[in-house]
């Protein structure tokens, strides 16, 4: 989900740590508010924050966190630099390469060539200012859930992508055979980039990208997907549960492994039951089903 579309400049944080720390450091940076984290190699993590008045406080917390980890004598590297808004896209290009988000779905940036193999689905994505490149485990698990769920329906299901960001989940749902798709975000920059990505994939029809307040929505959908921060998911749990049609599914991610039970409880109160769950690199994704109206 895009969170910081109004920032005039950005801060790129570079952390070099032992390989065994990478997962924990990545999770910490996202919990701290980074909307984009890239694992550059086995020991280097890049994270992006809006260059707002709150960043100095975040910088101190990162430094303190790394210092606490290194109490046993391990060394780390912590660097940061400001990136003007107009250079944001170029900083992403240096690190964004074609990747298998799932065994079937390949995400490629428009500036990289990729020859797909038989059975692969190629999704062209330019994240722009809206986070969501397919590199994060939560996005990959949502994509796998959509791969499994969409063929279950006798007819192409309608889909709500709540917090669409770059549009990756909405576009993937369309390519996987979904019916009408509504993709919402509160950030106008996200909506612009999501529409651009839909055009890059020649998938303008069938997806309604809209900046709309959630409270105005009354429709129900066969599949609702929301890849958000835990606090955002819990706050929206009642609303999201109401948007799922009877016998429909809700896919939620953005939660840490230890937050699964709390998250499941929030949605079970809305008439949903956990159908399945997946974990990857400390993160979790839940698929829930609504059995009654």
Description:
- By secondary structure, the chain is an alpha/beta fold.
- The chain folds into two domains: 85 residues, Alpha-Beta Plaits (2-Layer Sandwich), CATH 3.30.70; 192 residues, Rossmann fold, CATH 3.40.50.150.
- The chain has nine helices and 14 strands.
- A seven-stranded mixed sheet has the order 10-9-8-11-12-14-13, sandwiched between helices. The protein has a four-stranded antiparallel sheet with strand order 2-3-1-4, covered by helices on one side. Strands 5-6-7 form a three-stranded mixed sheet, covered by helices on one side.
- The N terminus is likely disordered.
Average pLDDT, all residues? 86
State the CATH superfamily name of the largest domain: Vaccinia Virus protein VP39
- CATH A-level architecture of the largest domain: 3-Layer(aba) Sandwich
Ranges with pLDDT <50 over ≥5 residues? 1-7
Please outline the helices and strands:
Elements: E1 9-16, H1 22-31, E2 36-41, E3 44-50, H2 55-69, E4 77-84, H3 88-93, E5 99-100, E6 105-108, E7 121-124, H4 137-149, E8 159-162, H5 168-175, E9 181-184, H6 188-200, E10 207-210, E11 221-227, H7 230-235, H8 237-242, E12 244-256, H9 260-268, E13 272-280, E14 283-290
Parallel strand pairs: 6-7, 8-9, 8-11, 9-10, 11-12
Antiparallel strand pairs: 1-3, 1-4, 2-3, 5-6, 12-14, 13-14
